[in-house]
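User: quick one, sequence for these tokens?
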């Protein structure tokens, strides 16, 4: 294992760090207030190539491997959680399926416009009755001539409002259970595709999560992603990759919270001296730094394993579980160090606190990650 970061990645990380500090952080309060990411900011991210991180260069992307993508996700994780989620979902579960499982024709058709950010990607597995029990889908896809007709409702889908290209899982043969699920590339412009209720959430403001309603939605047969009946396996592969990316974003958030806490502890005076001089504060900082470093080692190692084509189902579950729970512990300590100011909207800590919570739920809850780890150990 060699985690020496190549020069070009150091430069790319630096430019993303500057971008988030100079352009995203200052407007985070506005995103919170309006629950909207301004179009100019998304355009800026498009110009910087941040929508094509792991899309191969031949289709207009940056062609980063998993470690490269995680290094950039780490920088994005340092800023506004909604902004990071839009980019994270697109570069993760929104495009990974087409990149890894698409036919050459599907890649030619979809990837260039997704790499430029002209079309934003999303992933639609979850339904009202199929959350953790993700194989229990009710959305059906019935073959009629040269197309499939989709009917059903997905919910909690990230990027559903701004997204254009969706990886959708639907049941093609109910009698086969999980082996009767197929994945499709579905465009928002296809007839019968509707966006339903947009949820009011605790955090991740600006990253809209909504229902998708398919009413006799016609999908051409050439839009089957992978093989018929392999949709559930495809979903698990996409989610495995996505979990490593979430962990990298959580790692970035922990690094930012540590930096903010160190700065605050040095400048906040109580009892005539900076609170950084109190051992209670120092111990919190030490624990935050140690856990962040462990998360970093895990993220880089699992990303490296992905790049070696090694199986990572267990490791991806471990790193997602550890990094998301670390984020929760780190933000809690960051808020404690900031005292009452940490609770105020004036400081970013309360936003990170709300945004941290979802990471223990989406792309598989902490309990489901433990189930995956345990079943790998016991098989
Ligand atoms: C903001 C947000 C964005 C999302 N984005 C997307 C998206 O883009 N695409 C998509 O497809 N989905 C998305 N989701 C859905 C998300 O992946 C699910 O919410 C998640 O998988 C959990 O499902 P659930 O909410 O139905 O909870 P449930 O499955 O109902 O779980 C409830 C509780 O029971 C526990 N539980 C359930 N089964 C078990 C078990 N076998 N063992 C132990 N504990 C168990 C869970 O861990 C949890 O604590 C999103 C959700 C949110 C909130």
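Assistant:
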């Amino acid at each position: 294992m060699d985690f020496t970061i190549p020069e070009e990645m150091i430069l790319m990380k630096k430019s993303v760090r500057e971008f988030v500090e100079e352009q995203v952080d200052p407007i985070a309060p506005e995103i919170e207030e309006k629950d909207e990411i301004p179009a100019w900011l998304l355009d800026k991210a498009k110009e910087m190539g941040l929508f094509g991180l792991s899309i191969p260069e031949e289709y207009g992307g940056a062609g980063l491997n998993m470690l490269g993508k995680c290094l950039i996700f780490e920088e994005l994780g340092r800023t506004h959680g909604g902004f990071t989620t839009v980019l994270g979902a697109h570069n993760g579960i929104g495009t990974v399926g087409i990149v890894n499982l698409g036919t050459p024709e599907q890649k030619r058709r979809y990837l260039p416009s997704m790499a430029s950010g002209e079309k934003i990607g999303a992933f639609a597995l979850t339904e009202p009755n199929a959350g953790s029990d993700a194989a229990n889908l009710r959305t059906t896809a019935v073959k009629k001539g040269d197309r499939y007709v989709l009917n059903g409702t997905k919910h909690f889908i990230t990027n559903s409002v701004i997204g254009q290209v969706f990886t959708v899982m639907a049941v093609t043969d109910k009698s086969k259970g999980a082996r009767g699920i197929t994945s499709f590339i579905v465009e928002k412009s296809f007839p019968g595709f509707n966006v339903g209720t947009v949820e009011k959430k605790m955090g991740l403001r600006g990253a809209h999560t909504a229902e998708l309603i398919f009413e006799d939605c016609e999908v051409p047969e050439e839009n089957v992603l992978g093989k018929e009946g392999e949709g559930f396996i495809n979903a698990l592969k996409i989610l495995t990759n996505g979990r490593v990316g979430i962990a990298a974003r959580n790692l970035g958030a922990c690094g930012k919270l540590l930096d903010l806490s160190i700065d605050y502890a040095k400048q906040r005076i109580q009892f005539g001296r900076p609170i950084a001089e109190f051992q209670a504060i120092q111990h919190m900082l030490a624990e935050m730094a140690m856990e962040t470093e462990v998360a970093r080692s895990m993220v880089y190692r699992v990303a490296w394993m992905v790049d070696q084509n090694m199986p990572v189902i267990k490791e991806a579950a471990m790193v997602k579980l550890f990094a998301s729970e670390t984020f929760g512990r780190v933000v809690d300590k960051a808020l404690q160090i900031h005292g009452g100011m940490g609770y105020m909207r004036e400081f970013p800590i309360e936003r990170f606190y709300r945004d941290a919570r979802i990471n223990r739920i989406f792309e598989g809850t902490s309990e489901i990650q433990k189930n995956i780890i345990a079943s790998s150990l016991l098989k």
